[in-house]
Amino acid sequence: MKQCPVCKRELEDRLRFCPFDGQSLTDQGQKDVFINTLFDDKYRIDEMIGEGGMGKVYKATHIHMDTTVALKVLHQYLSYDRLAIERFRREARAAAQIRHPNAVVVIDFGVTKSSVIPYIVMEFLEGTSLRTRLGEQNQLDYINILEIIEQTCSGMQAAHSKGIIHRDLKPDNIWLVRCEDGLETVKVLDFGIAKLKSFADANPTLTQQGTIVGTPFYMSPEQCRGEELDYRSDIYSLGIILYEMLAGQVPFRAPTPIGVVHMHNYEIPKPLRVFRPNIPAPIEEVVLRALSKERDDRQSTATQLAEELETAFHSSGIEIPRPKVKGSRPVSRPTPNIPQSPDTEEFDKENRADRYVRGDKSVRATSKGLPKDLLTTEVPVNQKGLSAIVPHFRYKLSERRRRRLVVAVSLSILLFLLVSTIWLFGNKATPQLTNVNTNSAELPPHRGEPPQGMIQIPSGKFIMGNDQSDDEGDKPEHEVEVKAFYLDQHEVTNEQYYKFLEADKNREPPTGWVNRRYPNGMDNHPVVTVTWDDANAYAKWAGKRLPTEIEWEYAARGADKRIYPWGNEFVLGRANSVEAKRGGTVPIGSYLAGGTQHGVLDLVGNVAEWTDSDFRAYPGSKENKILPGYKVLRGCSFSCDKKGLILTNRFAEPESMRRPDLGFRCAKDVTQ
Description:
Elements: E1 2-3, E2 10-11, E3 38-39, E4 43-51, E5 55-62, E6 67-74, H1 82-97, E7 106-111, E8 118-123, E9 127-129, H2 130-137, H3 142-161, E10 164-165, E11 174-178, E12 184-188, E13 195-196, H4 197-202, H5 221-224, H6 232-247, H7 257-266, H8 281-290, H9 302-315, H10 345-355, H11 399-426, E14 454-457, E15 460-464, E16 478-482, E17 485-488, H12 494-503, H13 532-541, H14 549-557, E18 608-616, E19 626-634, E20 651-654, E21 662-663, E22 667-669
Parallel strand pairs: 18-21
Antiparallel strand pairs: 1-2, 3-4, 4-5, 5-6, 6-8, 7-8, 9-11, 10-13, 11-12, 14-17, 15-16, 17-22, 18-19, 19-20
């Protein structure tokens, strides 16, 4: 078994990276070949200090200059991958362009002559990661949070001004460095999957739209969908980090990565007051705005996020000590240099108009386009004098914005008092307020967690069938109401079915098994050549049942009548079909991008699936067909093409049928 150094999960040996946080898995029995060797004739490798998706990071010594550096080496198994090498080189180029105290400094880049291994040399940082700080303190104090976020935003604004999107912001990549004078500086690390716009435009094969790269807990909704990103994707990630520093946990957690992806797109985060009861409303509003599902609703720049957070602190009465530093001199704040793109130009214009005193024509602008009365003339510093290292600037609030802020805060207080009064007198039996989704179609029937490996499908109505189908058996379309239920995220595997056979010694094993054991290397492939009775017996043994045909189609299609789990267009690479040219089954979960809106995987392709429904024509069908002893199959298999994968297709087989492309998954009732 391998272990993730961050979440400490034990995972299978076949995996290289943790599917939950993207960290490289460790194997204690594996010896590092670079330790105590001379790398590229000038760097002595002393010890490994970290590992990521692209490579390992070592503490090293430049033997000619006698200086300590951090040396990042591309993973050896990627050394012959031209795309990986180009992306690695792009990391060096991207990071080297960011000249800012809050971004790690890149010193050197090269490729070894003998073994052709690319590497990057960076400044060696003494300190700790924000991840470690959160592990030690859980919830951070307000002043520490503001210090970290302001500096992180400052570094990210510098990156964004160079056209660089980080795409993997997380506490692991935010380093807290203790300087000789006792002050703490933030450094943003690892631009390994950053998108350098100018370079990507010239090399469209790198970081293409539709490629999902990042860490699930911190990915924006648009990144989860594989869409083209802009700087507001990093704003969302900063919002997640800010939420975690305040609450002590990330807003979205699920048993699987695809479950987290679903929550980013469809779930609303719990109010911060659930975890930090005394948090001021203005601070919570800034965080929740950064976590907006629609990018247009978020802060448009990292600088704006920092400004809004500081304003929220002031309006909440939280004192932010900023003593002057000897030797500091007045500094004027330059106009942010924000590169424009077709989808960001309009909202940036509006944002700047709002921030630079919208509509106040009496204020004369400076040569930088910034009204003079918005400039502070001295360098403000934080509690520890940090601005001596990283200058921090803030705008004065215009009179109009100040009035708007007072009104907003007053309304928030009144609304809070009103809700509290209603709750106090109308729900005396309830000990505390709960966050309730008022959409009855999405209300879970109970508050328990889904059983392991299962996903809750909420109750609702949908249109079943397809009037456009060439098969009369798929017609007519008709509305069906479904109660909430649980559904296995994956098909039942050979390994799971083997445990069932161990308990039922009299049951015949699937075709092709030797000594009641599946072939080597097929543990995570879906079990096949099982009859309906086999599948039904397994479900009962597991404390579950087979899904009905109605439940299967509802879980796959949802209420929007989609014809594939992911939408209405077939996309190559989202299902194990004829187009994939696999010629057989593949391990479960091989097509994460082909999941449903609730995170259920492989409902089409790979194997067809037994249901618990007898085959009979839909009400009002012209066929009026009933096949006694036949059960409905759904999903088609690796032997079907894209037309066969359409979710409304219905198939039938005798209960005794065994097929090499026929398996099943289980369902379970949601108890009240």
